[in-house]
Amino acid sequence: MSTKSLFTLLCAASLWGTSDQIVLVIADDMNATTAMMSTYERSNARYRLVTPPFEVNLGRSGLGWDEGAEPLKREGDGRAPAGIYPLSAAFGYAPSEQTALPYMYADERLICVDDAAHPDYNRIITMPQENPPKSFEWMRRDDEQYRMGIVVEYNAKRTPERGSCVFLHVQKAPLKPSSGCTTMEAKQMQALLRWLDSAKSPLLVQIPASACDAMRLRFEGILCPK
């Protein structure tokens, strides 16, 4: 891991260091398409393990940095974002869900805009009658992948072509990479939804194993691969 990318990651860790809940995803390297996810909750300034590691899927091209080093994540590159990001909301096919995150019902008109030229790029909106985006994702799909999901606040500044519509959601199949999201079994997704609480400012910390020791300096108590 380069000195520049390490510095960028530590700066981000300092910025988001007040979180009481951490979803930690560690991949072997930046090109891995699977990783291990675990969850932690802060107690007396130290993070304690809540959910032991389980396997999840990453993008078909692995991971991409938000800034600071290559590979950088870009629109349509098939990389899941590496770094530290708030988990801001939940969504799903059910009218309501047992979660302490803000919840969006994915009806037949809800979309996520991936048209970088559109003013609502990287936002979840109701399909507008005027000026519809040229490219978007339906949030209610014909499969189960968006039946339950969580919004990852990647590219919150909505910089064009830097990537959009990044979620945690139900996997297509075991060991099946995604287009740039982090996916898991439905039962794991449901457990995550029920555990996360917006009042605890939850964060996704998604990194290669080479960055884990640096993250332990800021999030004391997290466990790194041996």
Layout: helices, strands, pairs:
Layout: H1 3-15, E1 21-27, E2 34-43, E3 46-57, E4 62-65, E5 79-92, E6 103-105, E7 110-113, E8 124-126, E9 136-138, E10 148-152, E11 167-170, E12 182-184, H2 186-195, E13 203-208, H3 212-218
Parallel strand pairs: 1-13, 4-5, 5-6, 11-12
Antiparallel strand pairs: 1-2, 2-3, 5-10, 5-13, 7-8, 7-9, 10-11
Q: Can you give me a brief rundown of this structure?
A:
By secondary structure, this protein is mainly beta. It is 13% helix and 35% strand.
- Compute the number of structural domains: 1
Which percent range describes the beta-strand content?
25-35%
Number of helices: 3
**Roughly how many Å is the radius of gyration?**
17 Å
Mean pLDDT: 94
What's the total number of strands? Answer: 13
- Give me the oligomer status: single chain
**First CA to last CA: what distance?**
17 Å
The SSE order reads HEEEEEEEEEEEEHEH
Low-confidence segments, given as residue ranges, are none
Helix content: 10-25%
Give the CA-based shape: globular
The biggest sheet amounts to: 10 strands, mixed
Which structural class fits the helix and strand makeup? mainly beta
